[in-house]
Design brief:
Blueprint lengths: L15 H9 L5 H6 L4 H24 L3 E3 L13 H8 L5 E5 L2 E5 L12 E5 L4 E4 L3 E2 L9 E5 L2 E5 L2 E2 L11 E2 L3 E5 L4 E5 L8 E2 L2 E5 L2 E5 L2 E4 L2 E4 L3 E5 L4 E3 L2 E2 L11 E6 L2 E8 L5 E9 L10 E6 L1 E3 L13 E4 L2 E7 L11 H12 L8 H5 L58 H31 L15 E7 L8 E5 L13 E2 L2 E4 L3 E5 L2 E2 L14 E5 L7
Parallel strand pairs: 6-12, 20-24, 25-29
Antiparallel strand pairs: 1-34, 2-3, 3-4, 4-5, 7-8, 8-11, 9-10, 11-12, 13-16, 14-15, 15-18, 16-17, 18-19, 21-22, 22-23, 23-24, 26-27, 27-28, 28-29, 30-33, 31-32, 32-34
Helix pairs in contact: 1-3, 5-7
GO cellular component, one term: SCF ubiquitin ligase complex
Pfam family, one: Beta-prop_FBX42
Organism: Hirondellea gigas
């Protein structure tokens, strides 16, 4: 006869390794926290699981590969909203986002039709659901290019940009100096007005250091015009007062659209940025904050960092999302063409060389053409109010549609006084220039095609790519290591991880990238014009980037 068991086996009879493997498939947000409250043994196992998830993700960022999904983080299969409902309410760019507990908050942003929002969305990272928060109080103005950070149980919102419509052309955009606070528990917006604050600003960055908000750069309003700045403004939240610290003589160039990464309470790095029309910066600066951040006589010092491994850096950093992961900064940007040359065929290589040889016949290269016409590879800066009402620039976008873009800004000179702009002598000069550039581009294409045909006939290569075919593009993960930034003043670009599988995400600009528990959350963004994806292809508003799932012990 079979023996009789007096007690049923339970999950507590499993060894720790099996129990941890089961808990590994639980959501690392609220669910893992609930499991840790069962008993002391489960609490210890949950702690090990969270450490393992974090370490696996850091290792995947450094060595690869990484996975992405629009619905799951590879630890659970939660319900997902339909694509029709998500794209209709979350398709936006130039918004601001921040993490609070197991939720991600998204505010504002704009669309390709210049429509700005002032709605607040809450993304539940445990269930992967999203809902619009119906708030009360003094609502912020609909805007984009603002900053929002978390302080205790509140969201602090400052600055931003907004415009009515593209037409009529002479309407000016609006920069804001509004400061709002959203109380998460009370679900209320509150507007604050402080003296000695920064002017109306957009495209700036901010980090929280204790109870002080440090804001750097941006596009500021200066009378009737606007221009980029390198000023630092600080807000003492407790004392409700703005102040400007004393800065060292060596300072970075004015910029907006940059990234501000907090290393600790005393150190911040500034990455990339744009100073104006055709003024892209790829430098990296270190800001050292005194121990007493509110001391009026303490000097804040800037230091230009040495960049190593530049062959592994993206073609451009600004307008692309960045996020700190351990001792690394992750940048999601379009994959450089040079990274895929090893997989290119001979025909593509000849096409590349033919394009370079065309310069011998006086045909301008792409960088030269970019100096006089909007470049596809360089997305537009965040849009300010146009400094010259007669010459508003809406053509500097990387998208084929009309998207907001900052107008060309020029420093004031003795011959250029604010408020006394000289109108163009030739009103049709812009259209004539575009016509000449179009003809020059066609001549370049013909010459390039003739040279390619001649080289292919000599080498016997068939299957040359079409000249009008867009290059296949994908989003790549770039990694900037920070291990030696404080000791030696050196940052290093290293090879980033590859994507697991053959399907890779398409690149997007002006999106937000936040660090969750063992994953990165990418929200919003706009397509790039050089992207080869179809307009009818699904465009998920949220992507989750995570490490591959590990097997059983």
């Amino acid at each position: 006869p079979l023996p009789r068991f007096t007690e049923m086996a339970s999950i507590n009879d499993l060894p720790d390794s099996i129990l941890e493997f089961i808990l590994y498939h639980v959501s690392p947000y609220r669910d893992i926290k609930s499991c840790s409250l069962v008993c002391s043994r489960w609490h210890e196992c949950c702690r090990h699981v969270k450490e393992k998830i974090t370490q696996l993700f850091v290792d995947a960022i450094v060595t690869g590969p990484v996975c992405f999904s629009s619905s799951s983080n590879c630890t659970t299969d939660p319900p997902v909203l339909s694509s029709s409902s998500t794209t209709s309410n979350m398709s936006r760019f130039s918004h601001c986002a921040c993490m609070h507990g197991s939720s991600m908050y998204v505010f504002g942003g704009c669309t390709l039709t210049h429509t700005t929002f002032n709605d607040l969305w809450k993304i539940n990272l445990t269930s992967r659901s999203r809902e619009r928060v119906v708030t009360t109080g003094s609502y912020p103005t609909p805007k984009s290019h603002a900053v929002m950070i978390v302080w205790n149980d509140s969201l602090l919102l400052f600055g931003g940009w907004s415009t009515p419509y593209v037409y009529p052309l002479h309407q000016q955009g609006i920069l804001f100096d509004e400061f709002h606070r959203y109380d998460i528990k009370l679900n209320t917006w509150t507007s604050f007005v402080y003296s000695d604050g920064p002017p109306a600003t957009a495209g700036h960055s901010a980090t929280l250091h204790g109870d002080v908000v440090v804001i750097f750069g941006g596009l500021q309003k200066r009378g009737d015009s606007s221009g980029s700045t390198n000023d630092i403004y600080c807000l003492d939240i407790i004392n409700e007062a703005w102040f400007r610290p004393r800065i060292s003589e060596i300072i970075p160039a004015p910029r907006y659209g940059h990234s501000q990464i907090k290393l600790d309470d005393r150190h911040v790095i500034i990455i990339s940025g744009c100073g104006g029309y055709n003024q892209l910066h790829n430098d990296i600066w270190l800001l050292t904050i005194p121990e007493n951040i509110c001391a009026p006589r303490e000097v804040w010092t800037w230091k230009l960092l040495t960049i190593e491994g530049t062959n592994f850096m993206p073609k451009q950093v600004w307008c692309n999302p960045t996020c700190r992961v351990a001792d690394n900064v992750v940048v999601l940007a379009r994959r450089n063409e040079s990274e895929s040359e090893g997989r290119m065929g001979l025909a593509q290589m000849l096409f590349r060389s033919g394009r370079q040889n065309s310069q011998r016949f006086g045909v301008p290269s792409a960088p030269l053409a970019a100096a006089v016409r909007p470049a596809v590879e360089q997305p537009p800066p965040p849009p300010p109010p146009p400094p010259e009402p007669v010459r508003t620039n809406f053509a500097g976008s990387s998208s084929g549609q009309s998207t907001p873009s900052f107008s060309k800004y020029r420093e004031e000179s003795p011959g250029h006084v604010a408020g006394h702009h000289r109108p163009s002598v030739r009103p049709n000069a812009s259209s004539n220039r575009e016509r000449r550039l179009s003809m020059l581009s066609k001549y370049e294409d013909r010459l390039r095609a003739a040279m390619l045909k001649e080289q292919i006939s000599k080498s016997g290569v068939v299957g040359a790519p079409r000249l009008d075919q867009k290059p296949a593009c994908s989003q790549a993960v770039y990694v900037l290591q920070l291990q030696k930034v404080l000791s030696d003043g050196i940052v290093t670009w290293v090879p980033g991880p590859s994507w697991q599988g053959s399907v890779v995400p398409h690149p997007r600009l002006l999106c937000s990238l936040m660090l969750g528990h063992g994953e990165l959350v990418l929200c919003g963004g706009k397509r790039t014009e050089e992207c080869d994806c179809s307009a009818a292809e699904p465009w998920p508003p949220i992507l989750y980037i995570y490490a591959p799932r590990i097997g059983p012990p």
